[in-house]
Structure formats: C-alpha cells, structure tokens
Amino acid sequence: MNSDLIKKIIEGALLAAGKSLDIGQIEGLFEDRERPPRDQLRAALEEIDTDCRERGFALKQTASGYRFQVDQQLAPWVNRLWEEKPKRYSRAMLETLSLIAYRQPLTRGDIELVRGVAVSSEIIKTLQEREWIRVVGYRDVPGKPALFATTKQFLDYFNLTSLDHLPALGEIEDLSNLDSELELTLAVGESADQAAREGSEIEPADKAASDGDFSLDGQIDGAHKHLQPAVDTGINSNNE
Q1: Is residue 237 assigned to a domain?
Q2: What are the C-alpha distances in Å from 40 to residues 21, 65, 118, 159, 204?
Q3: 108-115 and 91-103 helices cross at what angle (nearest 10)?
C-alpha cells in the first residue's frame, strides 16, 4: 500500500472518530495482509502533522493517542458554532482539581487540610462526571476514605500527554491566573451540601501526598507548559 493512501486512511479515521486514536487502533484499520509496519504508520502521522502546520487545525498527540484539533487561536470564532456557552467553574473546583493533579492520590481530607474548608460533594461529583478524576484506592485508616487521581480524559482535555507536562506551579502566581489559563470564569457557586471531614488522622498513601508544607504557590512540579482546553474537530465534538 502506498504512503499517500495510508495517510488518507489515517486522516479519514481521525476525522470520523471524533476522539483520540492510539497507534493500536490505527493499526486495526488495516487487514492483516495489508497492514503497514508500525514505523510506517508513525512516519505517516509525522507527515500529517507537517501538512497541518499552516492550516486552521493540527494533529495533536494526547495521553490517549492522536486527534485533529482546531488551532487554539481560532477558539473565539469556532466556539460560535455552539449556542450554549461552556460551563463555568468555581474557584473552589479549580483549587480541588489542581491539588489532585499535582499531589495525587489524595483523599477529600487531604484537600481540606490544604484548603482549610470542607470540600463540597458537588465538586467531587462534577469532576467524576466529567471523568477528570477517579477513585484509585482507599486509605487504610478508619472510614477507608477514597483516594482520588486524575484520568487520561483530564490529560486529553488539557492537551497533555502525561502529568510530567503539567505547568510548573512556580509559573502560576495564584488561582485567578490558573482560572484564566483554563479559560474558565467564576460563575457557579459551591453547593450548600458540604461534606463532613474524614474523622481520623490521615496516614499518607505516599510521600507526595503527605507533604504537610505543600501550598499551591510553593511547589515546582512538571515541565514549563500551559494548560489549554482542546477544541476538537471531530464529528461528535463536545462544547468543552
């Protein structure tokens, strides 16, 4: 099979999928007798990436694979395709998500110790519904509080291939700047239903989670990149 046809097949599949496809899924597009070697598929992806550089969209690699994505600079115009505005999230939700992302795995009690207030049940529910966080275990203390960590969907949404690519917290002066980075504003207040603290002494799941001196302004983690929500060009695009 010639390289031009391979490129077209991959391009068509990425457009039709409306989500990231990993290299194994791309290999599955071909019958056994016609399947190109993996290095040839990767070469085709590199050519597609080069072809897109002067266009309004690009080939992006995420934690889940590869996808086509609208250039971030075009978001103000492309977003007008949807009448419904993106959801807005409170500062409390952004603080909770940031703590989980940088110091995972954490329990609600860990988050509350840093923030100094109870974590709303609605915040945890919303982050789980968006599939940005999930339960990865339970701490071996009375009450067995759940340990939360981020997901591949979280990485995909913010154009990250791994947690190593989170921006260094030293670059984020305060949470209002992080809010701007995420292109979200403070509009939705926290639910009145405040969760009770896990009523036991917290025993750390790991050293990172047990750092009692942790603060959002004082830690340096990850590479020097910025979080940017994705604008996906897939047929089943969501208004993220």
Answers
A1: no
A2: 16, 16, 53, 25, 46
A3: 120
* CATH code, 28: 1.10.10.10
Q: Where on the phi/psi map is residue 117: left (φ > 0), alpha (ψ -120 to 50), or beta?
A: beta
More confident call, 72 vs 211: 72
Q: How far apart are CA 119 and CA 113, in angstroms?
A: 10
**Which of these, 155, 133, 151, 159, lies nearest to 230 by C-alpha position?**
159
Among the listed residues 113, 128, 119, the one whose alpha carbon sits nearest the alpha carbon of residue 90: 119
Residue 156 domain boundaries = 86-230
CA distances to 21, 58, 195, 199 from 145, rounded to whole Å, are: 35, 42, 12, 10
SS3 state of residue 201: coil
pLDDT per position as a tens digit, 193-210: 333 333 333 333 343 333
Tally of structural domains, the chain: 2
- The whole-model pTM stands at 0.56
Tens of pLDDT, residue by residue over 137-162, are 999 999 899 999 999 989 888 888 88
Q: Are 13 and 47 in contact (CB under 8 A)?
A: no
CA dist., res. 71 & res. 86, Å (int): 18
Q: What does the alpha-carbon distance between residue 118 and residue 52 come to, in Å, rounded to a whole number?
A: 47
Residue 186 pLDDT greater than 90, yes or no: no
